Amino acid sequence: MAAYLYVRTTEFENADRGHATDSPPSQVLQTEQESMERYCAEHALPISGMVTDLDVPWNADFASREGGARLLARLTRGDAVVVFAMERLFSSCYDASAVLKRFRAEGVALHVVELDGDVTDPRLQLDLISAARLFAGLEKRRSVERIKNVKRAQRGKGRYLGGSRPFGYMIHSNGRLIENPMEQKVLKKILLLREQGLSLRSIAEQVSTPVAPVSFKTVQRILQRNV
After folding, report:
1. Same domain, 116 and 85
2. In CA terms, which of 116, 136, 143, 151 is 20 to 30 Å from 127?
């Protein structure tokens, strides 16, 4: 019997499901990997390797991912796949149903650390509320990723999606960001003065006018966005 750890991240990996939102994805994955390794040690599962699918589209089913397809081809009866959470493996309820059906037919176990057991084992029973929460989480994550994809596409087309208007631009009637000629001049001057080694406050003083004052905080945001 061989046990394989599986990790999947999406293009918009975030640290939800109880993780701190400011934790970088690499730190979250390291924590999850350590949890999987402890789980295998506690359940006497000999780890034969780890398969990863990084930065893949959320809606990509397990079998369609490069790592997922490679793992499926490697598995034999009696092997086990270990994941930290259901959403690391599945992209939807349909994907979950298809993979679980295949694993049961081929005699492959699927251990989920968060559930503390093999979900292909009929002896592992989940109450209705827990099961509903699991699958609702999958669908919620899928919706979030779909929205992020749409927003990224809209930003790529130059559309303004709300929030603070970037300095140097204005919002056209068609919803796109276009350059503001006056602010673009100020923007170029800010970048030039910074190259000359001036402090944020000194730059703010030099580019400010009675009609259009510029704070050092604004200068700081501009430099963070353009450097």
Report:
1. yes
2. 143
Q: Model confidence over 86-144: pLDDT tens digits?
A: 888 888 878 888 899 999 999 999 999 988 889 898 777 555 445 556 666 666 666 66
Torsion of CA 49, 141, 103, 67, to 10 degrees: -40
- Signed CA dihedral, 121, 125, 131, 133: sign only: negative
Residue 195 and residue 23: Cα distance in Å, rounded? 32
Cβ contacts of 194-203, under 8 Å, gap ≥ 24: 194/223, 194/227
The verdict on 16 and 101 lying in the same domain is yes
Task: Based on the fold, state whether residues 145 and 34 are members of the same structural domain.
Answer: yes
Residue 210 lies in a domain: yes
Residue range(s) defining the domain that contains residue 192? 169-226
Secondary structure of residue 207 in the 3-state scheme: helix
pLDDT digits (tens, 9 = 90+) for 21-51: 444 557 778 889 999 999 999 999 999 999 9
- Rounded Cα distance between 178 and 109, Å, is 55
Number of separate domains in the chain: 2
Residues 119 and 112: beta-carbon distance below 8 Å = yes
d(Cα 62, Cα 68) in Å, to the nearest integer? 5
**208: CATH:** 1.10.10
Same domain, 7 and 87: yes
* φ, ψ at 165 (rounded to 5°): -70, 130
